Amino acid sequence: MAAASSHSGNSGPRTAGWRPARRRRLPAVLLAAVACLAAQAMPASAATPQPAEGPSDRTDSRGVEIPAFYDPPAHLPGADGALVRSEPLPLGLSLPGPGGPLPGEATRLMYKSTDAGGDPVAVTGAYIEPSAAWKGDGPRPLVAVAPGTMGQGDQCAASLGLEHPITFNGRTVSVGYEDIAVYRLLAAGVAVVVTDYAGLGTTDRLHTYVNRLDEGHAVLDAVRAARKLPGASVGSRSRVGLYGYSQGGGATASAAELQRSYAPDVDLAGTYSGAPPADLAEVVKGIDGSALAGALGWSVSGFVQSYPELEEIADRNVNAEGKAAMKDLSTMCVGDAILRYGFKRSEEWTTGGRPISEIVAAEPKLRAALDAQRLGRLKPTGPVRVATGTQDDIVGHAQARRLAADWCDKGEDVTYKPVELPDLGDGLLTNHLVPLLVDQGEAISWLTDRLSGRAASSGCGALGGQR
């Protein structure tokens, strides 16, 4: 399976032999899942990108023209976190205020990071300087927000979601659902930097979905980039927190584990890791056949790009329908994937009719690749809060709880919060998304306490004997 390495013109990612899959009828239950996603978006008018007048050689992803800002230069700076470029970012949800726009002034960023292969990579994101004053102890703090699953198309990038909270043009639908957490932090006077991750937004490569090294590095380097931004009120004395749920929870968990070796200059006051996909071999089983089944395609394509030795295995095991679906998915946002591929079973995409989890178990290289992504083997830096819905059937509760227990075993202060709710429907995403909304206020309060210098108490005793 040849994964895409670049996006150019209107053709989308180049993936040898892969053709778009057929559109399927939308079951009514998918509408409920999409509504649950849309419910996270703050009220706003839909931003519908207009086609450019006349011929254009700009990068186009499902009819959305990606601004030239997102094209990485041929050469990047040497230092991780170095700013490549920046420009003002108009927030889609903003009001005039006596001291400037509310909730703050935003800047689009491109900065240098290092990918899983040790190579330089350009990453985009956004920094928002809040209008609200910081009333806690010490100078204004900074929180790096690691977005949850947005998709794999460049139009899905979280920084574009800040500019266009809802994007819909008949070919793609994207909701900037992380805007809620960003705005709640800004209201508390906390500066925020959001990463788009490697390959999401930037037009030179495919997004490497749930790759712990790419994501952890991108989060830590976003902090470094924000500190270097001219005019930013944060600096080396500002306390730093990390916030993320789902894919973002895995990214912040990875960043907390990698801080000592990769970014010792980024001291962490606290890390929130909600619903972290700590054990991908287990998460694959939960995603398969669910509303988020399309994420399997993002994972396969991203890992093949990062680890070319897996290409032969993927090519041998993915059939023509699967290859067409993965090519199609490579330009989709999460809403598109739910509408087109929700509840798909992976055995329909494989040559032998086996689910992807069985293929992983049978292929030593695949097992090793997923095992290398396992979170919980390194001690995180600073206090951490792990929250997970006890009914979560997408990013399973048991494997997230095990991450908290593993960190406790390594002697870190862990606050573990099981979000106990009734079963809201198998595979619909509701058991995964509702805990985010229910727990978000408490999670942000916990994080702002750490940013104010208040010590965290360990909750490891509540985890009992699970190790």
TrEMBL record:
<keyword id="KW-0732">Signal</keyword>
<feature type="compositionally biased region" description="Polar residues">
    <location>
        <begin position="1"/>
        <end position="12"/>
    </location>
</feature>
<dbReference type="GO" id="GO:0016042">
    <property type="term" value="P:lipid catabolic process"/>
</dbReference>
<feature type="region of interest" description="Disordered">
    <location>
        <begin position="44"/>
        <end position="71"/>
    </location>
</feature>
<feature type="signal peptide">
    <location>
        <begin position="1"/>
        <end position="46"/>
    </location>
</feature>
<dbReference type="InterPro" id="IPR029058">
    <property type="entry name" value="AB_hydrolase_fold"/>
</dbReference>
<protein>
    <submittedName>
        <fullName>Triacylglycerol lipase</fullName>
    </submittedName>
</protein>
<dbReference type="GO" id="GO:0004806">
    <property type="term" value="F:triacylglycerol lipase activity"/>
</dbReference>
<dbReference type="InterPro" id="IPR005152">
    <property type="entry name" value="Lipase_secreted"/>
</dbReference>
<dbReference type="Pfam" id="PF03583">
    <property type="entry name" value="LIP"/>
</dbReference>
<feature type="region of interest" description="Disordered">
    <location>
        <begin position="1"/>
        <end position="22"/>
    </location>
</feature>
